């Protein structure tokens, strides 16, 4: 699991338009903690690095599927978001409700702009 924040001018509404323009179909708009949010999926990257002597690194490959929940920093969706991303080596990310539960537990404790 990874929790991060992005402090830019891109609103969740604009992010959804980017997903749509890119042909993404596996996303869902919702509201979390009274803020606009979007669930989306993408694959991680798998990189193998050989730390032994004389070894070489392997190619970059597609890693397991990750599910992300992006929640606007504020209820007015003025830009920026908190992202919670979860992935599993089994290839089956948790149900969307788990990401929402994590967001509802973690985000109120995060300090920063309109956390």
Topology:
Elements: E1 2-6, H1 12-21, E2 27-32, E3 35-46, E4 61-72, E5 81-87, H2 96-106
Antiparallel strand pairs: 1-5, 2-3, 3-4, 4-5
Core attributes:
5-stranded antiparallel sheet, 18% helix, alpha+beta, single chain, 115 residues
Q: How many helical stretches?
A: 2
What proportion of the residues form beta strands (DSSP E)? 35-45%
What's the total count of β strands?
A: 5
Fraction of residues in helix: 10-25%
Through-space gap between termini: 19 Å
Biggest pleated sheet = 5 strands, antiparallel
Shape: elongated
User: Roughly what is the average pLDDT, rounded to an integer?
Assistant: 88
Largest sheet strand order? 1-5-4-3-2
Low-confidence stretches: none
Nearest-angstrom radius of gyration? 16 Å
What is the structural class?
A: alpha+beta
Question: Can you write the helix and strand succession as a string?
Answer: EHEEEEH
Explain briefly what this protein structure is.
By secondary structure, the protein is of the alpha+beta class.
Written account of the structure:
This protein has 115 residues and is an alpha+beta fold. It is 18% helix and 37% strand. The protein contains two helices and five strands. It has helices at residues 12-21, 96-106; strands at residues 2-6, 27-32, 35-46, 61-72, 81-87. The protein has a five-stranded antiparallel beta sheet, with helices on both faces. Strand 2 (27-32) and strand 3 form a beta hairpin. The longest helix has 11 residues, at 96-106. The protein is elongated.
């Amino acid at each position: 699991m990874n929790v991060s924040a992005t402090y830019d001018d891109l609103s969740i509404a604009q992010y959804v338009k980017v997903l749509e323009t890119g042909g993404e179909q596996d996303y869902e708009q919702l509201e979390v903690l009274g803020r606009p949010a979007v669930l989306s999926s993408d694959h991680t990257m798998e990189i193998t690095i050989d730390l032994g002597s004389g070894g070489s690194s392997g190619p970059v490959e597609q890693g397991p599927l990750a599910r992300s929940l992006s929640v606007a920093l504020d209820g007015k969706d003025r830009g920026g978001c908190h992202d919670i991303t979860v992935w599993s080596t089994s290839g089956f990310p948790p149900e969307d409700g788990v990401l929402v539960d994590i967001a509802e537990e973690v985000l109120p404790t995060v300090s920063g702009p309109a956390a």
